[in-house]
Every structure is written in C-alpha cells, then in structure tokens.
Amino acid sequence: MARSARDGSWRPGPVLVSLVVGGAAAVLVLYPIFYLIQASLSVGDPQARPPEAYGLDNYAGLPRYAHIFWNTVLVAVIATVFAIVLGFAMGWTLSRANVPGREALEQLMALPYYVTPLMGALAWSLIGSPSGGFLNHVWRALGGEGHLIDITTPYGIAWVMALFEGSVAFVMIGAVMKSMDPALEEASQVLGAGRFRTMLNITLPLVLPGVLGATIFVFAEMLGSFSAALVLGLPNRFYVVTTAMYQLVSQYPPRFPQAAAMGVSLFAVMFAMVYVYRRIISRGSYVTITGKAFRPRAMDVGRLRWILFAVCLVYLAIAVLLPVFTLLYASVQRLATVFPHLDNFTLANYVTALSLDAVRSALWNSLLLGCATSILGVLLMGFLSWLIYRSRLPGAGVIEYLLMFPQAVPRLVFAFGMLWAWLVFPIPIYGTLWLLLIAYLTVFLPLGVRTISGVMLQIDRTLEESAQMCGAGWGYRLRTVTMPLLRPGLIAAALLLFIASVRELGASILLMGPKAKVITPAIVESWFSTSTELTAAMALLQTLAVAVALALLFAVARRALRPVGE
Amino acid sequence: MTGSLAPETRRAASIDVKDLVVRYGTVTAVRGVSFSVAAGEHLTLLGPSGCGKTTTLRAIAGLEKPTAGEIRIDGAVVYESRSRVQVPPERRGLSMVFQSYAIWPHMTVFDNVAYGLRVRREPESTISERVGWALGLVQMGELAGRSASKLSGGQQQRVALARAFVFSPSVLLFDEPLSNLDAKLRAEMRIELKELQRQLGITSVYVTHDLEEALAISDRIIVMRNGVIEQIGTPGEIYDLPRSAFVADFVGSANLIRGRRRPELDGDGLIVLETPGGALIHGVAHGRRADPEAVFSVRTVHLQLSSKRPASARNVWPARVRSRVFQGDFTQYHLDWDGRRLVLRCVTSEPVAEGTELFLSVDPRHCVLLEEESPPVVGSPPP
User: Fold this and answer.
1) Phi, psi (rounded to 5 degrees) for A132
2) What is the pLDDT of residues B214-259, one digit of tens each?
3) Quick one: DSSP state of residue A54?
4) What are residue A516's DSSP bridge partners?
C-alpha cells in the first residue's frame, strides 16, 4: 500500500474500460441511426450506396402516405385507450381491493406479456377472420348473417395489441398504486370523506402522473408495433408505418429512401414521446413514492369483489388461454375448423415442422442466439448500468441518454438502419447470425440496462464504498461485491434477454439471411406461404422450446442464487 | 480484551486539512475548513445535519471529490486542488465505519472481516489469526461462520468495526456509526468504542450529531455549522466555554442572557452585565473581548433554585416557577425572571409547585461570556 502523492491523480483503469464499453455502446446505437438518416436523405438512385445526391424529396413525398400515418395513429390510440383502461382497472383491483387470491392473480397478470403479439395475432386470426374465423363459423352455424367480428379491421388489430400491452400497463400502473402511502387515503377518510370521494380527490390525483407516464410509454410502443399489424393487416392491404416500411423494403425494386424517411418520421415522434415520458418520471412528480415498500391495506369493496375477480379471470382467459388453446386446437387438425371431426385430428403438423430442416435449423439458431445474447448482453449491460449509476465518471449521463435511442426507435426501423450500416461494413457479417447478435444486443440495451439498474439502485452505495475503504481497487470491488450483490438482477436480465431475442420479429425479419434463419420470421413466412395448421404447430414449438430453456436456466439460476452460509 | 495479542500495528498517522471546499453544483457543503489531527488523536466533528461534517469526513476518505484545498495524511498529499492530485480512497491506507454499517450480506461474518486482508494478499494463516483477534475484540468470535444477513443491528455494527481495524489502517474514520442503534445499545457501544480506540491507538476522526457521544469518546471536538468551523477544543472547553451562541445552544442546553456592560462594577476577575430588566449578572470573560452589548451563556443545569435566600451576594434574584416538566432523571422548570423566560434543569427531588416564588442563583464561574455577537438564536432553549 504505497501512498505517494504522485500516483494516480485519476484512475486509469475504470476510465479506460468505460471509454471502451461506453464507446462501443455509442457506436452500436448511433451507427445505424446515422445510416437511417443518410438513407432518408438519398435522392439519387435508390439502390446506390453511398447516396449519389442528398435532398429532402423523400420527406416531401411523405404526404402521399398520409393514410398510413392516419392508420398508425388510429390503431395506436384505440389500443392505448383500451390497454390503459385495462391496466388501470386491474392495477387498482389487485393493489387496492380485497379481491380473493390477489397475490396469485398479480403473478398471473404477467402471462399475457409472454403470449407475444405475434402469437396473439395468429390465434385471433384463426378466431376472428371474417370468412374462416372460428367464432364467425359458430355465428353462421347459429343462423347469423355474414360475420360477427372482423379481426382484420383497425379495431381488431388494436384489440390484439391491447390484450398484450394491457399487461405492461398493469405492471406500470400497479407499481404506482402500490408505492402510494395508504396513510394519505386514510387521512382523507379520517377527516370524513367517503370512499368514493377519497378515490376522486386523493387517489386519482396522486396516481395521475404515473398513469400519464404509462399512457405515453404504451402509446409510443403501439406506434412502433409491427407483428399484429403485419399478420392481420397485410392480407387486407391495411398498412401502418412499420408494415409499410417492411413492404417498401421487401418489394421489388425496394424503395429504401422512402422507407427510411418514414422510419425517421416515426423515430422523431416516438423520441419526443419517450423524452416526455422520462421527464414525467424524473421530475419526481411521484410524491407518492417514498422509498418504503407499502403493502396497502385492501379496501373492502363488498360484493363487488367477486365481479372484479371475474373481470381479472376473463382478461386472463381471453389474453392467454384462448389464444394458446386456439393455436393448439388448430395445430392438431388437418384443416383448421371450429367443429371437431375425429378424422380431422392429426399430429402430422408437428412431424412436418420438426422434420423440416429449415424449421429445425431456425429453432436451433434462435436458441443459440438467445444464449449468446443473454450472456454477452448481461456483461455489456451490467457494466453499462454500473457506468451510468455508480461510477461517477464524466460522460455517464451521455451514455444514459444514448440508451434512450433504441427505446425510441421501433425495432424494425432500427433494423433498417443496421441493414444499411452493416452492408457497407468491411467485415462481411451481413446475412450471418453475427449481424443478428449485434442487432439484438443493440435493440435490447434499454431492456437489459433497465432490469439490472433496477436492482443496482437498491444496493446501498456504501456497500461498494466500504470495499473501497478496505483498499480494494475497482476491478476487485466489482468482482467481489458489486457483481455478487447484483446476481438476482443479472439473472433476471439474462432470462428476459433470452426470451426477447428468441421471439424478436421486427429486428430479425429484415436482417435474417437466407442461410441463417431464425424461428420467429420463419413462423411469419410460414403463415403467409404455407398452411395455418403448420404455422400454429411451429408457434407452439417455439413457445415450448423457450419454456424448456427457461426451466433449465431457472434451475441453474436457483442454485446460483442460494444465499451463502446455509 | 487484551491488547497483547494485537499484531504489530501500523504507526498512527496525522491528518492535515487546509482550506477545504466541497461544492455540489450550486450548493457549497464545506466552505474553507482547516484543522489538523495529531497521530493517535481522537477527533470528533460535531454538528447538526447539513453542517458539512460528513462531507468533510468523506473528503478525507477520498469518497468525495473536493472543489479546493489540500488534504495530507502523514505529511503525504492525498488531495490538492492546485496540482490536481487526487489519490483514490483505496490507496490512502485509511479505513471507515459507515452509518449503514455496509456489511456485505452475501458473505459470512468471517469473510466480511477478512476482506481488507485478502485485498492485501495476506497468507490465509495470517488472515484467520487476525480475523479471530479482531472478532474477539468486538466480542463476535462465536459468530464468525454466520451469514452476515442474519445479524442484528448491534452485531452488524461490531462486524463493521472489526472489518475496519483488522488490517491496521493508519487512520479510522467513523461516519455516525451508532446512530442506527437504539438508545441503550448506543450508550453501551459508546463505551466499548472508546476502550477499543484506546487499545488500538489509531488516529480516528469521528462524525456525529450526538453531543454525549462526542463528549464521551473524543480528545478534541470540532463543532461545525453551515460548512464552517464554529469552535475547536477539548470536550471540557467546548462544554464549559462555548465560543458562540450556536455552540452554547447546540452543545447541551443553555440560557443566553443579553445585557449592557457595566465596567465600573467589574472586579475579582468578573465582568458585569445589566439586563434590559435591570438585573445585574456577574460572569467570566476568559480573556475574551466584551462589547458594550454582550451575551452570557448559562447552562440550564448550573442554575439553582432555593426557597431561602442564599448567602452569596452575587447572582441571586427572585424568580417565579411558571411550569414544571418532569423528565425522569431530571426535572425541567420554566421560570419567569427579569421579564423573560429561563430554563432550569435539576435532579428530581422535592417538586416545586407551579406559581411558587423562589430565589434563583448561579455561580458567576458558570456565566460565560460569548466571544462574538452572534445573530439571535432562532427558537428558545429546548423544552
């Protein structure tokens, strides 16, 4: 322990590593965005790279697509309203009312999130397409005319998206409700206000900033959503911005500059919304959040509790059970139909799916990518979290700001930027799994950093400082104190990254090469080109594979999580 | 608890802080603080929350980057604003006990304490020997194998202490280490801490807002307020001779009595003030310069009540009991005297009824002239 006045007026270790990792994150994020913007300004030959001439013509031409922008806003607004109402009702019910089994219900509410919009869209297409939908079959069998529901309308697409996003809204709003000190409500009641009046005058204003934040967040997500609109809208030629971009890029000849201009416009709007969202969150309008964890006493709502209980169950049934069972039902039939015939049942679809080399390799590639993304991602994002929230190094704020970008850019749009960016990259990774790995690591940066930093912020800073006072340098500290304490967060992040990357559609569909397919785009391809029943089988196989992989990871994680000294 | 088992300890180091300034954005937490701690000395930074004491301590530790000034440990510069020297905390050879204890929940008690030794790559045999020694000193020997997450607050405190001194640092820093314990345990730990300090002989800097703690364990106390030093002195000096109204009031409860100087009545080494109500008070100046308008500080415990007029000719006045507050070990009286209120505390004996007229007296040695004309202290003495 040499103490000299000269040594280390500044620590070279962490600064250097931070520069490298922070710089890498910056490149990952900014490089594709640069190319996206460059492409949108290209006015020469649309295929030329780098562009022959620059101009704003592509933006000037956007009014031609006004109806597409209108569609996007329409679908997003309907879906947001529905998701927020759903999330608010469930959030209030499960954190405030004495509904039977609310702890268990609260856990189950995460399930719709795991039924992805893609699976939801496939299932609902089977249920509610105007001609062949199961529900419309039943309707006609009962003597109805035409069709009862049409899932391919904007309302139908919004419905599928809202069922999924309702779970997200529930988590966000429920957290706000739970963080509210119940004494604030009790004070109102003690002073003589009734239950309803308390709710109106106290509860609502207190949770309003949180609800507003959730609304903006969900709306931004809806604007950039892709799968449901693709599966349900494309056959009907109903486009939103993301599906229109996909169409412009995948048609022949592709119209990259127009697609890029569309993407940049969407990016600009969403960026503004995410910015507003973060302002709302960071301004600390959450007077309700005091850092203590409350378990608010449940309000006795009398007989209403059974109705609220039923509402929760119905939501779970419609958002989880119905889609899964529909896909299951369709996957074991030769020709999907609502009325069962014994000779119609078959396991051939599963046999086919498992015997197709393309499906097998796609599934394998996806699982491989999932593992790689979660391992590399946890290292990268864990370090970035530390850099942003703990290192106190200059520039940490800039990196936090940079990580906002992938959150504000729809993954399809981001992938579009990468498509251009990596095509000109000197190392030939285009069309390989490497490109997908880079794409996943980039688009999931906010997800991973958010998950890890949530745990990191709960770790008292003095736990690291005391290691420092014991003489431990930053690397030793990171290894012996920070990382072990972070383990739950790191494992959660690894699991989330795995699930997210195996199921990612928007980023994969543009970047996937013909020789390196992954499973989710393969499912969509199958939906449009082969049979419904085979697709259903593939979707379920994917879900099964994810579940098995998760169970394995979870078993490992449990062992790793066992506390010392026992 | 014997010191003979102690491995050779590092020589205690001195600390010099010069013109230290710490600024966060627009807030200046410490505004030009200078002091020195001699090798082996136990110094306490005392003050209300927000006075800059913890920031000063963290700046010495290296956990806070100062804005200006200079810090030397054992003569070696660890921070200097001009030459931009900033030695990182882990290379300053200090150690610290945190308010939150900062015990690592994922390690056993043994591993927690052994950490500093492992960092220094001591051989395992030395580690187990010294950890055993340290845990013995804090009476935690039996719990070495226990998971640190299963300790009570008091036990965590002891582990934090053992972890801090086991590797023989040259300086020990304490950041309000007892403030999270309940009152009874706090009083016990205070005594243990003092014994430990004396045994180890390490230089220590201790931060607290608790007066009793500061008086009990320090060789010297620095009273801080709003980022500057109000007074430096031994516990006795701080208590008996507060320099300012702030120190008088913060360090125990005191009555501040303002009056006009009457130099013609001075004598016997005493000076005399006349209150607005006309009462004459004799007190001591201790060489401090007295303005025509001056203030005496009189501790509430030094005032005395008696039903008969005391024999002394000085500092005896009539007073009336306005209210009485029974507080267990002592009783607090609020008196009407000279057109104002005085607070008096005495050991509970025969209670004096409210409204009684009595004689109030105070030894002139306990009326201490304050050095400077401080702005009037906000609020009255503690109830």
Assistant:
1) -100, 0
2) 998 999 999 999 999 999 999 999 988 898 888 988 877 889 998 9
3) B
4) A513
Interface test with A, best of B65, B70, B83, B104 (most A CBs within 10 A): B104
Place of tokens 């699982």: A367
Query: Kind and range of the H or E element at A197?
Result: helix A195-198
User: Looking at residue A562, what is its pLDDT?
Assistant: 54
How far apart are the C-alpha atoms of A482 and A461, rounded to whole Å?
10
Q: What is the mean pLDDT of residues A385-400?
A: 80
pLDDT digits (tens, 9 = 90+) for B109-137: 999 999 999 999 999 999 999 999 999 98
Residue of A4, A469, A481 to mutate, testing the B interface (most B Cβ within 10 Å of its Cβ):
A469
Interface of A with B (CB under 8 A): 1-11, 460, 462-463, 465-473, 476, 480-481, 484-485, 563-566
Dist. CA A47–CA B324, nearest whole Å: 94
- ipTM > 0.90 for the complex: no
Please name every residue paired with B73 in a beta bridge, in sequence order, or none if there are none: B15, B76
Mean pLDDT of chain A: 84
Judge contact between B95 and B167, C-beta under 8 A. Answer: yes
pTM over the 0.95 mark: no
Query: Above 60 in pLDDT, residue B309?
Result: yes
3-state secondary structure of A303: coil
Q: Do A8 and B91 touch (CB under 8 A)?
A: yes
Q: Show the tokens assigned to A247.
A: 């169409």
Asked if A409 contacts A270 with a C-beta cutoff of 8 angstroms, the reply is yes
**A151 burial type by CB count under 10 A (0-12 exposed, 13-18 middle, 19+ buried):** buried
Q: Which residue shows structure tokens 């200090």?
A: B94
Report the DSSP pairing between strands B316-326 and B15-24.
unpaired
Cα(A486)–Cα(A457) distance, integer angstroms: 10
In whole angstroms, what is the distance from residue B108 CA to residue A484 CA?
13
Q: Which two tokens stand for residue B129?
A: 């020997």
| pLDDT class of A491 with cuts at 50, 70, 90 | confident
Alpha carbons A241 and A225: distance in angstroms, whole number? 9
Contact between residue A512 and residue A465 where contact means Cβ atoms under 8 Å apart: no
Tell me the per-residue pLDDT of A236-245, one tens digit each, with 9 for 90 and over.
899 999 999 9
Do B102 and A465 make contact, defined as CB atoms within 8 angstroms?
Answer: yes
Q: Are A452 and A385 in contact (CB under 8 A)?
A: yes
Residue with tokens 């050879």: B93
